[in-house]
Amino acid sequence: MFSxxxxxxxxxxxxxxxxxxxxxxxxxxxxVIGLFGKMCPREVENFIALANNNVxxxxxxxxxxxxxxxxxxxxxxxxxxLSMWRRGGYENCSFYKMDFLTIFAGDVHLDKxxxxxxxxxxxxxxxxxxxKMEDPWLVAMQVFMGRMDSRFFFTGRRPxxxxxxxxxxxxxxxxxxxxxxxxxxxxDPAEECWEKRAFIRRSREILPxxxxxxxxxxxLDAPSMMETLRLQHLHETKQKIDDMSxxxxxxxxxxxxxxxxxxxxxxxxxxxxxx
Length: 275
Known about the structure:
The chain has 275 residues and is an alpha+beta fold. The protein contains five helices and eleven strands. Strands 1-2-10-8-9-6-5-11 form an eight-stranded antiparallel β-barrel. The chain has a two-stranded antiparallel ribbon with strand order 3-4. Strand 1 and strand 2 form a beta hairpin.
């Protein structure tokens, strides 16, 4: 649910971006992201440039965060000549970290989750996190030591309000939650449990006349939409419990715990008018 503080912020969708997600050789779906261009215009401008693969990125061997050059009086390493730079962005960028609440991507420089680059240079200063992370399926730019680059993360099916103020929310996921759930089910790539690579095969901004554009997202009532997503997750979980019970399998150590959870989901569904 959006709090009253959220309603004071202009979270209307001004731009939309589409990611085509691939896992190994398999195309597992698309994710459509709506961006809050009025609430955080600079961050959205940077995100769109990266989604359109229109950012100058230095070669991978250039590491300005490495050792300082003694011969240059302690100055950082000079940038390589412009001829060695490439124009790119989120396309072919890997998902490098995941847990049951977040999924990280966006290292356009080294593709290892330790670097990044922006439309405005290596990084830029983090000023203020306007929106709290009290809702599921948000998109936020990762902040490290008070600065932001190209790295971002999706929040999952549950809110993570305890990290509010540390990162900058720039939008929300309008469609493609099932695609992200499929990635969550694969585990964390940082623990080397993936035999295949998950990455953004294609990224681009879409215009209102595009068939993938979500029509009039600002006309949707945000609290109702978030409540619908929450109830949808509850009923999907209940269905999994029912299936495991029929097969004689249990998610927990004791059968009565499973039955208790099922009763809770039943009560939520009945109170909300769902079957």
